[in-house]
């Protein structure tokens, strides 16, 4: 499952390059925050100016797509990355997606499983 990384900077990384992503969890929203990004094929490293507080997780992925938006003072890069090695943050996202898939499967089973039929009444037993 690929991941979308959004950076508020112009970061040009070619398709197919391996990247090391360093993330930490936001204490309020429990969402991953990108702290650093390293292009392993060229050796170029990008990181935030402030140091991360707390624990970080690292994972390696391969760039599938890189889109850079250039505008009036707003530079933005969107990277679509296919994770090669999972990290703690990647595991949390995978579990969230697995829960959503399980809920969808249950809903589909209820839809096709005959839950709309009345239950069969068992006859009384005489011993």
Number of helices: 1
Return the string of H and E elements. EEEEEEH
Major sheet: 6 strands, antiparallel
Q: What percentage of the residues does DSSP assign to strands (E)?
A: 35-45%
Note the main attributes of this structure.
single chain; 127 residues; alpha+beta; six-stranded antiparallel β-sheet; 1 helix
Outline the fold blueprint.
Layout: E1 3-7, E2 18-25, E3 32-39, E4 45-47, E5 57-69, E6 76-85, H1 88-112
Antiparallel strand pairs: 1-6, 2-3, 2-5, 3-4, 5-6
Description:
The structure is a single chain. By secondary structure, this protein is of the alpha+beta class. Helices cover 20% and strands 37% of the residues. It is built from one helix and six strands, in the order E-E-E-E-E-E-H. It has one helix at 88-112; strands at residues 3-7, 18-25, 32-39, 45-47, 57-69, 76-85. A six-stranded antiparallel beta sheet has the order 1-6-5-2-3-4. The radius of gyration is 23 Å and the shape is elongated. It starts with a strand and ends in a 15-residue tail after the last helix.
Summarize, please.
The chain is 20% helix and 37% strand.
